[in-house]
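Structure Section — protein described below
Tokens — whole-number codes for backbone shape
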Amino acid sequence: MTAASDAKPLKGLFISTYGCQMNVYDSERIRDVLKPLGYAPVDAPEGADLVVINTCHIREKATEKVYSELGKLKQMKLASGGKMTIAVAGCVAQAEGAEIIRRQPAVDLVLGPQAYHKLPEMIARASRAVGDRLETGFDTVEKFDALPKTRDPEGPTAFVSVQEGCDKFCTFCVVPYTRGAEMSRSVDDIVLEVRDLAAKGVRDVTLLGQNVNAFHGAPPRIEGGEDWTLGRLVRHIAKIGGIDRIRYTTSHPRDMDDDLIAAHGDTPAMMPFLHLPVQAGSDRILKSMNRGHTADQYRDIITRVRAARPDIAIATDFIVGFPGESDADFEATMQLARDVDYAIAYSFKYSARPGTPATEMHGHVCEALKDERLQALQALLRDQQTAFNRSQVGKILPVLVTGKGRIPGQIHGRSPYLQSVHFEGPETLVNSIVDVKIVSATMSSLTGEPVRIREPAQ
């Protein structure tokens, strides 16, 4: 009998991911946790042995999409004769727990975002029909200690979680209740993970956290002393061989300290892109949201960041129709957007989330007015994004090639500003940085012509 015939057949794993970059990172780590058990990713849930729905609880629509998807998976599970295992992970799992199992009995396992390292144990218990099907503890330190120390990245970019949880308690947000209190990983653990990624060809890392610039990680063991801040961590990661680009998300205005702002100017690997959510431009609404800053304080941060790095692109998040928002409040939001002039922005209607203080506030805005305001804001933001992209036409940008383009013979990459860039070239350029002259732009992407390959693909 050959060694190949002795190998156990792989089990199909399908992961459906909703929401933020943190969930994308978590899904990758779920895959890493399950790999030793013989699970391998498949492209569709049909026929998969294990389906994991990694959920987001920020907006009501995302939650309802999860239940809709679970209804479809129930039919697939029945068609498989019950062989498919269905797990719900993430923030909806944390928030709704046993309600998910009650509402959709086809679900086998429910685990919160701080418990996915326990998935192998939960699967084993489920196979024996013993033990609890629900894990929603908040032991973040245990999770990171239990995760595999190495990863299998796909391509030259990767997310690295450095901080989790939130202590800000914005009145509209469920994150403190689903992700727990703020916790930072140690510098040693982060550096070990980044070095492993760099050795495997990753060149662009995005440091993740619910409040990533609140990072205060334990210093290297050989150094001791005070906890490191995000600015110091970024400068250290920039020294790791092979790491050419560093970004971070999502940040909070209250945690934009002087050292981090300075790092944007003195660390070449720090990309000229900052996602700094503001949510509203009215001080009255910002106070009601418990954001802890004013509109002018936010403007001052942007001014200081641009002084440190003049070519930086600014991104943000907005919520319209927050309880009590008047016409004057909304106009203040529009004015802030005009003042900052964003390269990209994400905007949403206020969505009441169970258990958050905003749900009990007076003055909820009707859906029709929310729609009207959102359309007006998004029209302005689309114009700004289009103008920013068009301002790149004629420039030569260094593009990190990440894969094939939309049409044959075309490849795709990312500019320093996170723009999607398409140009003609061979797939052998994947993982290379190519100087590309931008010849045209739309709101969503750039098209260019290669000028020079800075370095060959590794």
Summary: The longest strand covers residues 396-404. Residues 1-8 have pLDDT under 50 and may be disordered. The longest helix spans residues 367-390.
